[in-house]
Amino acid sequence: MGQPKTSTRRPRHTSKATVAAALVVMSSGCGMASGMASTERLQLEPISVSSPQVKDGGPLPSDYSCKGSAGNPPLRWSRVPEGTKSVAIVVDKNSRTGGEVNWVVFDIDPRTNELPEGSVPVGAVEGSTTSGKVGYSPPCDAQENYRFTVYALDDKVELRKGTLLNETLKSIADKTIAWGRLTAAHIE
After folding, report:
1. Which tens digits make up the pLDDT trace of 27-59?
2. The model's pTM
3. What span, in angstroms and rounded, lies between the C-alpha atoms of 121 and 116?
4. In order of start, what are the domains of the chain with their CATH numbers?
């Protein structure tokens, strides 16, 4: 996981660099948040993430891309640790040319262990994506990897629907106690 980086500098405006930095913290499952190293979370427990429609390392079916109309693919997860107060899901593009967040959903009941196709769990909240849209923003770049990451959190995020992406990702990162991921290698 490497050494945690620390910084006390806070940007005044949201930028792509800020979003990318938040994604690095989120996607690595470790690091720092709020300028403070999360030393108590050096070893995070893995969550098992799967889908009946997407195989890890396989293609994302086009039904779940901007060419389809199914919305988000179904997801399942297990091994959520005791003490989890809520669950969050972040779908993003993992690219050398820059990340892109396609979906953020949080405050999912910790007893929930699956997400049906094209749905949001009752009581869950959706945040803004990189495009500023609220809800699942279907991936379009056929040659990129897309990650479906499930986070176990030690508290609810408690932000409003459509809250700015960097604020939502920071809150999720601050509360993460475990995470797991399913990666689609490209779009069919």
Report:
1. 444 332 333 233 344 456 699 999 999 999 999
2. 0.79
3. 8
4. 45-187 (3.90.280.10)
